[in-house]
Prior knowledge:
Layout: E1 5-9, H1 12-34, E2 37-41, H2 44-56, E3 68-72, E4 74-76, H3 86-93, H4 119-133, E5 147-150, H5 166-169, E6 175-178, E7 188-191, H6 193-196, E8 201-206, H7 212-219, E9 237-243
Parallel strand pairs: 1-9, 2-3, 2-5, 5-8, 8-9
Antiparallel strand pairs: 4-7, 6-7
Helix pairs in contact: 1-2, 2-3
Bound molecules: the ligand O=C1O[C@H](COP(=O)(O)O)[C@@H](O)[C@H](O)[C@H]1O.
The site of the ligand O=C1O[C@H](COP(=O)(O)O)[C@@H](O)[C@H](O)[C@H]1O has 17 residues, from α2 and β4.
Family: Belongs to the glucosamine/galactosamine-6-phosphate isomerase family. 6-phosphogluconolactonase subfamily.
Domain Glucosamine/galactosamine-6-phosphate isomerase: 11-240
Pathway: Carbohydrate degradation; pentose phosphate pathway; D-ribulose 5-phosphate from D-glucose 6-phosphate (oxidative stage): step 2/3
Amino acid sequence: MSNAQVVVHRDGDLLAAAAAARLVTRMVDAQAARGSASVVLTGGRTGTAVLEHLNRNGARDAVDWSRVDLFWGDERFLPSGHPERNETQARAALLDHVPVDPARVHVMEPSDGKFGDDPEAAASAYADVLASLARPEDHGDVPTFDVCLLGVGEEGHVASVFPASPAVYEKERTVVAVRNCPKPPPTRVSLTLSSVRRAQEVWLMTTGEAKAAAVAMALTGTGEVQLPAAGATGRRRTLWLLDTAAASKVPALFKPPLA
Ligand SMILES: O=C1O[C@H](COP(=O)(O)O)[C@@H](O)[C@H](O)[C@H]1O
């Protein structure tokens, strides 16, 4: 994790506002360079707050939303429209308010979707979606995302890859079904860490003292099996966006002045 960058904000609200502004810039730059942008969304409180801030930010209209591919890092395997689905929360926070191209909003199937209550089939279908969008220059079955947004759990999970779970050992598949999650709901679909690592930039965003130990451990050499967040790295950049409480156990070496 030595190449990780840490940015500490005064509180969670400022973190979400600053991350939203940062995301606008990143998407506009990607569109200027390549014509389109691709972002992996995360669920959770911080991830949703970032989308809410993005929706309120006047600069959101600098993005050509019809040329954005949106993916999810994980999904809670629940019926379509369920309030706990990451998709439902992202739509309410942002996607229902901007002119996205529905064909470029790549959702993970719900538990009442075309595969029914079969998370393995939903995971396999999402792997097919990723593979269909990968270009030769991506060198594999996953597109090179511009940004992958991630929350971080108290025990160090990212997406729905939990410590010492089968998902953290997965080396072949790009997307997996996750069962018996320690955090409800118990059944989920998730990108694997190797898929997360296809992103140019990975932004790990979290707040609160309850996350402080996991953040510090991830930054100081704990392995990804014990702490999946440690294995969430970007090809070009790994950025930790923290509030002061989540950063409270980070060694001074990593801590820049307060942003
Ligand atoms: O369940 C989940 O939790 C994590 C972290 O959520 P937070 O509320 O503690 O920020 C999130 O990253 C993940 O996408 C989600 O499914």
